[in-house]
Amino acid sequence: MATTRKCVTRVQRVVPSQQKRAESTALHFYQNRQLELYASRELRPLSLRQLIFFGRSLTESRLLTSANYVRTELPVRIAHRLRDLQALPYVVVTQEGVARVYELYWSAFEQFRRYPQVNTPEENKQFCDFTRRLLDEHASVIPNLYLGLSLSSPYLPPEQLDRFMRKMLTTRISRRVLVEHHIALSEAYSKGGGSNPTEQHVGIISTGLNVGDTVRRCIDLLRRRPLPSSRTCWSEVVIDGHPNTKLPYIQEHLEYIVFELLKNSLDATLKRHVRSTSLPPVRITISEGVNDVGIRVSDQGGGLSLKDLTISRPEDLFSFSHVRNAKRLHAPHLEKLRSVANTHQGLKATVHEQVAKWNGRNASTKDAQDGREPRLGIGLPMSNIYSTYFGGKLELMSLDGWGTDVYLRLPKLGTNLEGIEV
Ligand code: COI
Asked: With pLDDT > 90 as the criterion, what percentage of the chain qualifies?
């Protein structure tokens, strides 16, 4: 009797678990077929100008078209990246952080794919809430990806690693832009501001972003940063050239780039002139060309040949591979990255989030006591990616022993399509 009961129990245990495994395998095959289907579809990249034109004379029907464009375009864009993740060597996929990113994207892909058509303004409101939630859930993607790929660096050739990261990060920006733009259009429409052709903003795009104002905002925020105890002020920042230059652009993106470049210059100058009583200024030159807007950030921070830098060419600072930039695998760097990756909010992506963090930060860490943020080494590679997203370019020139010049060039007309690779 006892034996029979044992057998029955075993059978009852085994059968459901086998069945479950078979079901889960079948589901996996089905999901992968869906993934292939979506990944075989063409992307529909847009330019700033198209985003502005479409959003400028907004009607209910256009708003719903915008919602359904986001709803159908996002799963295609995510499917391409999921396929890239699946193509990574197993040793990479098993690194800390990578699986988390993969899960987040699978989940977002499934949710977008199943999301029903948006037919009414009320349904659009729900759709906006849904996308807001996803934006929030994906806040930790960059540090997780960065951690996973830093740990994978020994197993991937630097070209492959950088190409992969570049695609992941550029298309992430692109997805967030589409979603945030749609949310901003929906908010403006619900406040009755949908069809004002003189608006300075259309969705998240500033139709005539004043470069000088953006630079001044960044200077102001950065110079309010806590200083190391040995100093009483930051370098002066001089603006020259054509500060009133305007271009259609996403303010948050330009702010991010200028903020990071200027932060590097101010920090390098402070470090280089640690024993001097006065600091040389940082110079920002703005130029308006026929097709481009240029911004040069010039400092006397000693250039890139400082002894603690482990890179050999300035552009290696954009690389995520330890072969090009040995710091990527240094233990303290990985430790900082791990702690950021494990917080829900991840990196403070916008300038204002970074500033808010300084103001409220816990002053017990060494970086905080020095008056600086823990440096993750992501500001420059991310600035490079933001610069190229709508066809711009970022270049670094080092005058070793003297200083660094960084050149940012952005197309002025907003006609370049998003630079997203399939
Ligand atoms: C991301 O932030 O990584 C995204 O892809 C956002 C999207 C799911 C709304």
From this structure: 64
